[in-house]
């Protein structure tokens, strides 16, 4: 951000009276040939999303969201004592455990915080190494893509897909944390390819949601993503090509992951993958390295979600919609002009801040969230995913309700060894 931009931001802090800028209807191409297979229903009034309207940023400028509990929730990401209490899953030990999970991401943030950057959340992530002066010639984007995937998997990626850049998913404006204001989006031009990387969260610990214990899985997922992105980005830049890494900044990850063939959008507004269900954290790298693209696929996940309301029924604040996808916006934290399942972020985040930690009940109860720790369980999950994608999806739902235990486990169960101790 230039000095002029910084001065403008400082003079115009965000508030209800000075809300984030609306870019208006998107001026670029609204539709893409891949939209149908991706289940993207883009409407004529489609607008790119302003990052300042996401619920976490609203917790810093929107008086309707701001509260002492919100402040304590943010502080609790670094201070395990703030929300600790004498309750299983919420003790100082549990919050200290959660803090340990976030350490990789927090170190990434602290690296540039004095420079007015919040890498991975408000700003893209600075890659460890600079771009090499001489490019390694790439004769075959197809071969390079396969080599890159091998590199990424060695560095921690469990799923990976590659697609082209799609500016519809890029945030129209970014958040300036120093001045509590918006700032221009700042992704360099020419980064025509997008790499989507996913890592899993531990199945056993997810069973203890809601709890600070379970929140460790999310934090560690982000930390794994951060480490993997840095390593892959360093590899790309070492070959003479540019790489810009992204966690929760720059662009929406779920639509990119769908375009890269990694999964589909679920009722709970999260990516559902055929390998791990919704139990994944995803990140992305924008690059000008010549790469071949993966194609989006359908597994019948949308059709299954249409008959399954388990996440909506289990959500304590009622933040998840029942019924079919809709273009209704529940508040300013929803995107305008796209028909899909959206959650009520205000209800969701209020529940989080009341708990003092994040919640993932919707992940825990999702039928696509299954234990695949043994050969037999992995075999059954693959069969079940296939069944759920056919006209026998109601049978798949019945099997899940009848035979899979989705009740919350006490965090003490995990500390005693989880299923390994049963």
How far is the first residue's CA from the last residue's CA? 55 Å
Total DSSP E strands: 10
Specify Rg, calculated over alpha carbons.
21 Å
**SS-based structural class?**
alpha+beta
Q: Which properties best describe this structure?
A:
422 residues, alpha+beta, four-stranded antiparallel sheet, 16 helices, 10 strands, 10% strand, disordered N terminus
Polypeptide structure, described:
- By secondary structure, this protein is of the alpha+beta class.
- Helix content is 38%, strand content 10%.
- The protein is built from 16 helices and 10 strands.
- It has helices at residues 3-11, 35-38, 55-61, 68-75, 92-112, 141-154, 203-206, 212-238, 253-259, 301-307, 310-314, 345-355, 361-365, 375-388, 393-403, 411-415; strands spanning 41-42, 159-164, 173-176, 181-184, 193-200, 243-246, 264-265, 271-272, 280-287, 338-339.
- The strands form 4 sheets. Strands 2-5-9-6 form a 4-stranded antiparallel β-sheet, sandwiched between helices. A two-stranded antiparallel sheet has the order 1-10. The chain has a two-stranded antiparallel sheet with strand order 3-4.
- A hairpin with a 4-residue loop joins strand 3 (173-176) and strand 4 (181-184).
- Helix 5 runs parallel beside helix 8.
- The N and C termini lie far apart (55 Å).
- Residues 1-8 have low confidence and may be disordered.
Quick recap of the structure?
With about 425 residues, the protein is of the alpha+beta class. Helices cover about 40% and strands about 10% of the residues. The protein has a four-stranded antiparallel β-sheet with strand order 2-5-9-6, sandwiched between helices. Strands 1-10 form a two-stranded antiparallel ribbon. A two-stranded antiparallel sheet has the order 3-4.
């Amino acid at each position: 951000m230039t000095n002029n931009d910084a001065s403008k931001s400082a003079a115009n802090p965000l508030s209800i009276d000075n809300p984030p800028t609306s870019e208006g209807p998107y001026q670029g191409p609204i539709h893409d040939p891949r939209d149908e297979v991706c289940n993207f229903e883009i409407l004529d009034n489609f607008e790119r999303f302003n990052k300042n309207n996401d619920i976490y940023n609203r917790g810093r400028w929107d008086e309707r969201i701001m509260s002492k509990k919100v402040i304590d929730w943010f502080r609790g990401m670094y201070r395990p004592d703030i929300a600790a209490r004498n309750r299983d899953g919420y003790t100082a030990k549990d919050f200290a455990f959660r803090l340990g999970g976030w350490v990789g991401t927090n170190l990434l943030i602290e690296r540039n915080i004095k420079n007015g950057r919040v890498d991975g959340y408000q700003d893209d992530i600075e890659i460890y190494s600079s771009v090499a002066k001489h490019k390694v010639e790439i004769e075959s984007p197809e071969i390079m893509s396969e080599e890159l995937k091998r590199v990424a998997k060695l560095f921690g990626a469990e799923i990976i897909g590659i697609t082209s850049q799609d500016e519809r998913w890029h945030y129209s404006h970014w958040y300036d944390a120093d001045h509590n204001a918006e700032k221009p989006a700042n992704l360099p031009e020419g980064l025509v390819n997008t790499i989507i990387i996913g890592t899993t969260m531990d199945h056993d610990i997810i069973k203890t949601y809601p709890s600070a214990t379970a929140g460790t899985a999310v934090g560690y997922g982000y930390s794994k993503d951060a480490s993997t992105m840095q390593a892959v980005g360093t590899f790309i830049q070492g070959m003479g090509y540019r790489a810009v890494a992204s966690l929760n900044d720059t662009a929406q990850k779920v639509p990119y992951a769908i375009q890269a063939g990694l999964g589909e959008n679920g009722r709970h507004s999260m990516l559902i993958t055929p390998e791990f269900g919704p139990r994944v954290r995803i990140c992305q790298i924008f690059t000008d390295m010549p790469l071949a693209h993966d194609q989006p696929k359908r597994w019948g996940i949308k059709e299954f979600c249409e008959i399954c309301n388990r996440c909506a029924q289990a959500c304590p604040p009622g933040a998840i919609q029942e019924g079919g996808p809709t273009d209704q916006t529940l508040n300013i934290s929803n995107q305008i002009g796209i028909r899909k399942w959206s959650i009520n972020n205000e209800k969701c985040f209020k529940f989080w801040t009341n708990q003092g930690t994040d919640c993932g009940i919707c992940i825990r109860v999702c039928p696509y969230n299954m234990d695949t720790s043994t050969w037999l369980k992995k075999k059954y999950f693959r069969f079940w995913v296939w069944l759920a994608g056919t006209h026998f999806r109601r049978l798949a739902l019945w099997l899940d309700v009848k035979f899979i235990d989705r009740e919350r486990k006490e965090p003490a169960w995990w500390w005693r060894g989880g299923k390994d101790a049963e």
